């Protein structure tokens, strides 16, 4: 089946999630810069969540550049991926409200990041299975592709570091995000080569 509707649906859901996060931002109680400064942690976690969603969207877009068709398994894998990232507005607001006084918000935030990465990995595996062993995606992201495992392992560590100092969870997950800021270079190079081979 064609992939266009899945991509359009994913784009729309992520856009809505980001919009909901923006709407969760409330103005300061007073009209001074000191009142605005009191919301600094709320803005920091909003920025972290916004960048996290942007990185997921960017990698999702690159992933589907090397996919020609999908099946029902891929559709459900993508739905589960979207289900988890739809929790970002909730956990972002919770961390913004209770950034230091309790470990539960940061631990929950870390768990959402962890499960999102697991769902993204399952999406990759579903696409490989749907495309076949000789497909572009299997050759590029099949055996030997370890970046998801590094991220997932780091996310697990980050969740439990909330018990040591809650902000450490956010810090570790943000550092792990650097692995994905630049989407898979092998995909970009492959798509560039493929486009050159297509006659104008």
Automatic annotation (TrEMBL):
Compartments, record wording: Membrane
Catalytic activity: K(+)(in) = K(+)(out)
Any Pfam family: TMEM175
InterPro entries from the UniProt entry: TMEM175-like
GO cellular component annotations of the record: membrane
Domain of life: Bacteria
GO molecular function, one term: potassium channel activity
Record bears the keyword Ion transport: yes
UniProtKB keywords: Ion channel, Ion transport, Membrane, Potassium, Potassium channel, Potassium transport, Transmembrane, Transmembrane helix, Transport
Transmembrane region(s): 7-26, 38-57, 78-96, 108-128, 149-182
Membrane topology: Multi-pass membrane protein
Family from the record: Belongs to the TMEM175 family.
Protein name stated in the entry: Integral membrane protein
Taxonomic lineage from the root: Bacteria, Bacillati, Bacillota, Bacilli, Lactobacillales
